[in-house]
Amino acid sequence: MASYSSRAIHSLTGGINATDQASADIIALHGLGGDWNRTWSSFGYCWLKHALIPKFPSCRILSLNYPDMLSILSAHPPDIHGLIHDIIRDRRQGNRSKSPIIFLGHSFGGTVLKQVYVATHPSNTDDADYKALHSHIRGYVFFGTIHKDRDMSRAKLEVPEFWRALSRGASGTLGGHSHELEKAMYTTFRVNHAFRRLGGENLLINCFYETKGPGGLSRRVLITQEESTLVARPVPTMPLDLDHQSLVCFKSPRDENLARVLDALDSFMIRAMDVEIRLHRPIAPESRGLCLLSLDGGGVKGLFSIIIIDRLMQETRRLEGPGAEHKKPCDYFDLIGGTSTGGLLAIMLGRLQMDTQLCIQAYKSLSKEVFSRKFKVPFLESFRKASNVALSWSWFDGDKLKEAVCRTVKENLLPSDSAMLRQSGCTVEDLTLITDMKSATYSFVCAVPKYEEKVKRIRSYEPLDQQANAPAERFKIWEAARATSAAPMYFPHIEAGGVSYFDGGLESNNPVIEVIEEAKQEFPDDKISTVISVGTGAYQASDASAGLAGFMNYMINMATSTEKHHRAVLEDPRFADIRKEGYFRLNGTLELGAIDLAAVERMDEIERLAEAYLSSNEGQQQIGMCAERLVERARHH
């Protein structure tokens, strides 16, 4: 049996970052016929060294050399204990045994790294060092790695072509090894099956696949997109405009393929580098806790949010099984908070306890009624479109919003509200946001009092801090809706209780931090198990120097920035417990973010973008994981 060299671990960070302060170990392994340097290099440019080190300066970057990979993989089970011992020995030096591990694997190198997970799994070993290593594996990035485990026939049919392609550019004489390669591919299928069975696919994973055939030709690719995609769980799977052999070779820092990889790794590493995170693992009964829903502002783009939540409810029903009770968001979430149109949705889903399908129809109707032009002066219309703002005037009628909200409330009254209105002789306009129903899901909306910078949470419940409750008691449902939607240059401000209120998006267009802090305040004895934050598209900052319109766009983008709150949850030590338990951000693209808040004529496009997100690997992955957590938590509640 071939042995693994104890000197095959190459640290690309040298002595600069190779300290016990390294936040993570990024460990790369080449494919068949490759080596630790050449596989990752092109014309002297090694992206592991020249791109990853500046990108992640606190991480150690290690590259493994495994010249006997084919011999190892052609055995069953593959003997990789030498490799595991070397990794353990290297991490023990300098007291780095507790650093999280990210594996990068090219081709069959990804298979070998999967086997590391399998061999160190507690069900397969009693060795304490193996178990410790296993517990610190945070994720994998695969480049052209096969993930299938069922179709064994392809291995025998296509091994010769596969081997010839892999032989190109590899060092040494590799001819005559097709039989070993065939056995290696069978081993790959077995490893893939074990990796999935033992929960490896529940780790944080990104996959890249080739779009060119061997040698850069346009003929059939070596490893298809389907084969490069996980079987049991959708994960981000991204194309690179390269062939299989050069899939991890980038020519320069300006290489578009490298830029795509680094962009993906950026968000990947933010989540993976926290040593306490255990990503995407099931909630144990003893760890059940609060489920929170946060809804961004975004005008008509709130339609995107409710479509996302509707799909989430569909997935929970699928997981609950046939005959399960038809549940609504209010049956899963303990607290729902929103800003602007996200606030309107929080009222519908939380206070009114609406079904998502009814909510979609009500939201479409409300948007069409509210976002009709109040002014039709051609010059002002052109300027507003050019600058995305309108100076001191309100472009839409606040009374129309009030009428639309009251109609929505009337059409979706809870039995308790109907009884109260009959007994009191009051009208829908008098119905307060705050309710005495003890079983009601807590919901609140964000607004900003005039001359203040702090967000006011307008609640549907009596807060534990009774002093904070005084303003909330005075809010009717329509007043709360108007206050959270009073975006300057779109709707006029509203006065309630002698105080003028503006759209909460001025301070917290993404209210996720408000939602988390409110939950900790109102449920001090309960931990938070799941936070789901739904956005209305990514935003790209405007150039502040591009004249008046550019400056005003810049100010609006700054005021409505949502990503800073998202990144705060990912990075701020205050939210380490949230990251550990389960934080999910479901958001649209720049294309969605670029749609005007009032573009009611583009609702069909918003629906299309929502469906595109839900059909993407990221969307399917996020919806699947969120639904699993909601259902698991509900079963133990």
From TrEMBL:
Keywords on record: Hydrolase, Lipid degradation, Lipid metabolism
PANTHER family: CALCIUM-INDEPENDENT PHOSPHOLIPASE A2-GAMMA
SUPFAM superfamilies in UniProt: alpha/beta-Hydrolases, FabD/lysophospholipase-like
Record field: transmembrane: none
Residue ranges annotated for the PNPLA domain, each copy included: 293-516
UniProt motif DGA/G: location: 503-505
Pfam family, one: Patatin
Residue numbers covered by motif GXGXXG: 297-302
GO cellular component terms, A-Z: membrane
Positions of the catalytic residues: 340, 503
The protein's name: Related to calcium-independent phospholipase A2
PROSITE patterns: PNPLA
UniProt entry tagged with the keyword Lipid metabolism: yes
Molecular function terms, GO-annotated: calcium-independent phospholipase A2 activity
Entry keyword Hydrolase: yes
Superkingdom per UniProt: Eukaryota
One annotated GO biological process: glycerolipid metabolic process
Renumbered ranges of motif GXSXG: 338-342
InterPro entries: AB_hydrolase_fold, Acyl_Trfase/lysoPLipase, PNPLA_dom
